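Bumping my old thread because nobody answered last time. Still need a sequence for this structure:
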């Protein structure tokens, strides 16, 4: 019998339990953050493609995440969250290696672009497995009472990786080149694979399965609201670097850092509200903002 069956966790115990998961997400999501400020400039300036291709390159990761999310949930439910996270980390590492191969073929722009698209698609699949697995694993460890807290810490790690990874990637690019960025990006998820071995797994979910379309019917208003609300920072991630370059400004990565820092501060300050007040009440206030 596990500890949760004996007594519920305190807030401090829940937070301590969630910190290893937050570290795993941070290391894994740096595969998103490190190249984030670099890729638009690489596609536009080095490969010679226009803003539309830049947009598709940046969007391809999210498209792959969307298309593989159901499968990722199936893996987490039936094969276990640990396996989902482990496979997600391996795919994130593989995506960075595809970035490196793209760089080696930059003299053949179309080949390099196809390899870059492949890397972004693999990263999207890896991100889907990673986030789905970590969320189900962490909530399974702390219980539904702290589900909101678990999502808060996952969000903090994601946007810390974006906010901190973007300038770090720019620094590595200036000092050592894109190959070093790709190498570091490939290694970090493997470190997370080592860390996750120390966390107790939860058993796969063997309860009654709900049909896909029934699930969609239950959640589509929330999903559409979230999608519409996140279009803004999707555009920010894709085109901030090009906008800075067009104005001959430097420090585009720090614009992403400012966004990530504001996100993390908001999560730390208000992250407990959904657990106390309910998600719907909080969303009604925050979505218009």
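Sorry it took so long. Here it is:
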């Amino acid at each position: 019998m596990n500890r949760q069956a004996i007594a519920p966790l305190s807030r401090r115990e829940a937070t301590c339990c969630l910190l290893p998961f937050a570290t795993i997400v941070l290391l894994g999501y740096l595969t998103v953050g490190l190249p984030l400020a670099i890729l638009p400039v690489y596609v536009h300036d080095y490969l010679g493609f226009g803003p539309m291709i830049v947009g598709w390159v940046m969007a391809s990761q999210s498209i792959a995440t969307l298309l593989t999310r159901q499968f990722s949930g199936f893996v987490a439910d039936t094969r276990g969250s640990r396996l989902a996270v482990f496979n997600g980390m391996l795919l994130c590492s593989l995506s960075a290696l595809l970035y490196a191969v793209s760089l080696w073929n930059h003299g053949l722009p179309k080949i390099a672009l196809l390899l870059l698209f492949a890397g972004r698609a693999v990263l999207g699949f890896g991100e889907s497995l990673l986030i789905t697995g970590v969320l189900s694993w962490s909530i399974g460890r702390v219980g539904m009472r702290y589900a909101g807290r678990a999502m808060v810490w996952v969000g903090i790690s994601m946007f810390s990786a974006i906010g901190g990874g973007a300038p770090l990637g720019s620094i590595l690019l200036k000092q050592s080149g894109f190959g070093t960025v790709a190498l570091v990006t490939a290694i970090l998820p493997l470190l997370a694979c080592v860390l996750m071995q120390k966390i107790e797994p939860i058993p796969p979910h063997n309860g009654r399965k709900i049909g896909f379309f029934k699930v969609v019917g239950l959640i589509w208003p929330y999903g559409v609201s979230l999608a519409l609300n996140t279009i803004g920072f999707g555009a920010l991630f894709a085109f901030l670097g090009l906008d800075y370059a067009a104005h001959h400004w430097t420090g585009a990565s720090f614009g992403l850092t400012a966004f990530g820092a504001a996100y993390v501060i908001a999560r730390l300050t208000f992250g407990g509200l959904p657990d106390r007040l309910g998600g719907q009440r909080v969303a009604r206030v925050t979505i218009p903002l």
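The CA atoms of residues 96 and 184 lie 8 Å apart. Let me know if any region looks off to you.
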